[in-house]
Write a structure and sequence with these properties.
Elements (H helix, E strand, L loop, with lengths): L1 H17 L8 E7 L6 H20 L8 E7 L4 H13 L4 E3 L4 H13 L4 E3 L16 E3 L4 H16 L3 E6 L3 H16 L3 E7 L8 H10 L3 E5 L2 H13 L6 E3 L6 H7 L7 E5 L6 H14 L7 H18 L4 H10 L2 E3 L2 E5 L5 E2 L2 E8 L2 E10 L2
Parallel strand pairs: 1-2, 1-3, 3-4, 4-5, 6-7, 6-8, 8-9, 9-10
Antiparallel strand pairs: 10-14, 11-12, 12-13, 14-15
Length: 376
């Protein structure tokens, strides 16, 4: 019996020594945003961007001796779905998150990420309060916040367009109303008159009532706060009713889907958006990678999400760890070459170093105008 036991023990040791070493667990990067539904044109490009950056790193051997795994979660840009999406990412034990994409879901998700000690880098959530007052020290973003965008659009309206009477329409969401509120504050200080300030229902199909109000108010320009589906429907209704007042909006308006939806009705529309960096090597690499992988030009927020993934993975590499505290400290100061330029993050978590410009639709395309700022 003793000889049998000894022989079995020896065999067990041999098997253990002969077995290949277990591969280290992958580094999991969650991606939360609208991956289906009306706002999928915002979320899918961001998911594509993260997949491409991760594939590039994995092709070079991964990070810290580990492969990287992308874990998508769809919240359709709806706050009521966001907490469930965030909870699933936490249960999947992701190491960090790119996203959420929209401001409302970001606001709903951040308390959960904070409690779980997870860093979240959003490519497109712009509500200023997300990075103010130190409420979300683990939150970063690679996009200009609403205050920065409103500062740019207001300066453009006051100095370039020299408008006097302004109408404000918004979708009553964190993103849209925040943009409209800040523009109104700056414009009124600049001496303009507010002739209309009103919320519109995002899922409405008929905007004739608000178009009649606009006609009576006779604004020089309409400031719209919200996403492209509402902007598209509103603009089509305006032009159908022969109201030719120009419209200016935030980055959510500068989307290829907006141009496809509105056609010639979009001519003359203005929007703020990251400065054109298409001559940068990183931009060219990112663009070509998307065309190769998906057979099309990148969509809204792609380059912002590409930059978010780059910054996050660079911080993990420099920290030599996925430890949240170490990665957070490096993210604050680490400058990374991205498609948006060489960017880092300020003390609040907002992007620093990237430019923001005004664009106008001309002959069916958004064209960058000579009016921009650099984020600090």
């Amino acid at each position: 019996m003793k000889k049998g036991m000894t022989w079995l023990a020896a065999m067990a040791v041999c098997v253990t020594l002969a077995a290949p070493a277990q591969a280290a667990d992958p580094i999991k990067i969650g991606v939360q945003g609208a991956q289906s539904g009306d706002l999928a044109s915002y979320g899918v490009p961001s998911l594509n961007a993260v997949k491409i950056v991760v594939d590039q790193v994995n092709a070079k051997g991964g990070l810290l001796g580990r492969t990287i795994e992308v874990v998508p979660q769809d919240d359709q840009c709806k706050p009521e779905m966001a907490t469930n999406a965030a909870t699933k990412l936490i249960s999947e034990k992701v190491n960090a998150v790119v996203g959420p994409i929209c401001s409302g879901p970001t606001k709903a998700s951040l308390p959960l990420f904070q409690e779980a000690a997870l860093i979240a880098v959003s490519p497109t959530a712009t509500t200023p309060g997300l990075t103010e007052e130190g409420k979300n020290p683990l939150f970063f973003r690679t996009v200009a916040n609403d205050n920065a965008q409103a500062t740019l659009t207001s300066d453009f309206m006051l100095k370039k367009l020299k408008v006097k009477k302004v109408a404000y329409l918004h979708d009553n969401g964190d993103y849209g109303k925040g943009f409209a509120d800040k523009n109104r504050e700056i414009m009124e200080k600049g001496g303009t008159e507010t002739v209309l300030f009103e919320a519109v229902t995002p899922d409405a199909v008929d905007f004739s009532a608000v178009v009649r109000k606009l006609r009576r108010a006779k604004p020089d320009i309409i400031v719209f706060g919200g996403y492209q589906p509402v902007a598209s429907k509103l603009l089509q209704q305006m032009r159908r009713d022969n109201l030719k007042t120009p419209l200016i909006g935030p980055d959510g308006v500068k989307d290829e889907t907006f141009l496809k939806m509105t056609g010639k009705d979009s001519e003359g529309t203005y929007a703020s958006y990251p400065k054109d960096t298409s001559t940068l090597p990183e931009y060219k690499v990112a663009r070509e990678a998307h065309i190769k992988a998906f057979g099309s030009e990148p969509g809204f927020g792609y380059y912002n999400a590409y930059a978010a993934a780059q910054c996050l993975l660079a911080a993990i590499e420099k920290a030599g760890s996925t430890d949240t505290a170490k990665v957070k400290d490096i993210l604050r100061d680490n400058k990374v070459d991205t498609p948006l330029g060489k960017i880092s993050f300020n003390a609040k978590g907002d992007a620093a170093g990237m430019g923001l410009s005004i664009y106008q639709v001309k002959d069916g395309k958004f064209v960058e105008l000579d009016h921009s700022i650099v984020l600090e």
